Amino acid sequence: MARDPKELEHLRMMTKVSHLYHTRGIVQTEIARTLGISQARVSRLLSAAEEANIVRTIVVPPVGLNADLEEGVEKMFGMREVHVVDASGETGEQRTETLGIALAGVFQVLPVGDKAIGFTSWSRSMRRFVENLTSFPHSSARTVIELLGGVGQPTIQHQATNATERLASLTDAEPLFLRVPGVVSTPEVREAILSNDPHARRALAAMDDLDIALVGIGNATIVPPLVGGENFFTQEQFDAVRAKGAVGEINLNFMDADGNPVPSELDDLVIGVSLEQLSRAERRIGVSGGADKHEALLAAVRGGWINVLVTDEESAQYLLEQGPAKR
Predict the structure, then answer these.
(1) In 3D, which of 29, 27, 51, 24 has the Cα closest to residue 40?
(2) Which of 110, 173, 176, 210 could disulfide-link to 203, CB 3.0 to 4.6 Å?
(3) 236 Cβ partners below 8 Å, 6+ apart?
(4) 176-201, pLDDT tens digit by residue?
(5) Who's near 191: CB < 8 A, 6+ residues apart?
(6) Residues 84 and 21 in one domain
(7) Domain that includes residue 38, residue range
(8) HEC string of 149-174?
(9) Where among 64, 88, 106 does a domain terminate?
(10) How many helices (H) and strands (E) does the chain have?
């Protein structure tokens, strides 16, 4: 019988902490600092791991967990945290749900008090993450900032707004909405929109001081339910930037296979976070899975644009096979 996803995520955290403490010999205070949780939380997870018979004389990961795979990706790419889920045999939608649940478990233990949280509300995985999140009763974040303007049809934008509102409510934070088009037709239109919208200007300025960034990773193509031309790039525009070497994008900031930015005229058509702003965030959290995202995910990891990753086994293995960029 399959385990409940939330139970599996709790087991994942117990196993990860146990692996760091018993196998790698890292002290509890250092584990707490690395994972962004309290030392008391680390102690409770270690105790729970013993009760669950995960810790005997060695760390014994429950079926479906991947402590060695996670550590391999962390070490190879110098990442802060990697969390790998078993999504074998799942459809794309099921994988999105699995990754969202896993991210909720990771985020739930982060210290969010007085933090500025950037949120990619149009990402399906991110919306699933928020649906599975519970409240933070003992801490209040400062702000939840939408990292990209609206993309796609009105129904998608409505779902994105609801997700931002829910995340802000759960973290007791002020939501900063970016209720303008995510992609516009000309740089002049972008300038005109921002000159007349103080709320959008405030959201963009707040991105200079992000503490946590929850980003979207795309493969520089149109993925349903998004439609080209509806506050979004057309396939012809994606093809043009791919011809310049782009293999993927983070919040519509394009990257080549080694994670280097790929400048193009499309940059001036986006209303959202820049890679420079993103790079300042202490925790840059990406969630991505499936073969169609492999190249884009590798670029994001190689470029250091994310330092916390939630992904599936297949994608983690791909990262290990490809390795860092060859400088």
Answers:
(1) 29
(2) 176
(3) none
(4) 999 999 999 999 999 999 999 999 99
(5) none
(6) no
(7) 1-64
(8) CECCCHHHHHHHHHHHHHHHHHCCCE
(9) 64
(10) 13, 10
